[in-house]
Amino acid sequence: MQRNYFSILFFIRRTRLLKNGEAPIGLRITVNGQRAELQIKRSVPEKQWNAAKGCAIGKDRKTLELNQYLEMVRTKVYQIYRELSQDDKPINAEILKRMFNGEGDSPKMLLEVFRDHNKKYRELMGKDYVGIANNWSGNWGQYVNDEAEALIKKIPTTTDTAELKDLYTKLTEIYLTEVPSFSLMYRPSVFHCVNESVWTNFPAGDDGRNIPPADCTDGYGIAALYELELVG
């Protein structure tokens, strides 16, 4: 399979200011030297833009929400790229742009990711695994928590992303407080490098925090999410 040189960049259009005086934010996708640009329907005051890091500067709520949205867009583009690569399908900047805009076949997106995450929680904490003979599927400790069970059942019927975030936060707090399961070994296959252009303070094996530097959605690695810091 041919290797592709792929990058994405957020930038602002300083010569096309909006009526409110802010600069619209654009996204540039580059694959093997060919570019495609699109607007992401967000804007920022010129003086608050960090061109080197491709994000807004500041710690107020509006700025934090903007940077979180930019990171979500970045994640979505990378996900599309990964799934096309895994399926050995053609990849160029225009294809990524069209698929980001919902044109053509769409890979798994945010709600499907939520569903996969909920499946992991059910396997770790779900009451439906309790009392099963020869249980090799999940909840090996026979853990029972009615509040956690209610959250697990509510999540699949929730489509609002803000509400989903709140539900997962509550469920994760229960998991990290009661620790119904924990890892007995590291799996090097899930260790990873991270992009610290927006979020930093990811765990490392020698930082003394005893958080596995692995997938931050797996086991006690979830604890890492509560120590991340926003750049800028």
Helix-residue proportion: 25-40%
Low-confidence stretches: none
Beta-strand content bin:
15-25%
Which whole number gives the mean pLDDT?
Answer: 79
Query: Which structural class do the helices and strands define?
Result: alpha+beta
Total helices: the number is: 5
Task: Describe this protein with a few key phrases.
232 residues, alpha+beta, 3-stranded antiparallel β-sheet, 5 helices, 7 strands, 33% helix, globular
Please provide a written account of the structure.
By secondary structure, this protein is α+β, with helices and mostly antiparallel strands. The model has no long low-confidence stretch (mean pLDDT 79). Strand 4 and strand 5 (55-56) form a beta hairpin. The chain has a three-stranded antiparallel β-sheet with strand order 1-2-3, with helices on one face. A two-stranded antiparallel sheet has the order 4-5. The protein has a two-stranded antiparallel sheet with strand order 6-7. It is globular, with a radius of gyration of 20 Å. The protein has five helices and seven strands; from the N terminus they run E-E-E-E-E-H-H-H-H-H-E-E. It has helices at 61-86, 93-100, 110-125, 146-154, 161-178, and strands spanning 6-12, 23-31, 34-44, 49-50, 55-56, 199-200, 229-230.
Summarize the entry for a quick read.
With 232 residues, the protein is an alpha+beta fold.
Q: Could you outline the blueprint of secondary structure elements for this entry?
A:
Layout: E1 6-12, E2 23-31, E3 34-44, E4 49-50, E5 55-56, H1 61-86, H2 93-100, H3 110-125, H4 146-154, H5 161-178, E6 199-200, E7 229-230
Antiparallel strand pairs: 1-2, 2-3, 4-5, 6-7
Helix pairs in contact: 1-2, 4-5
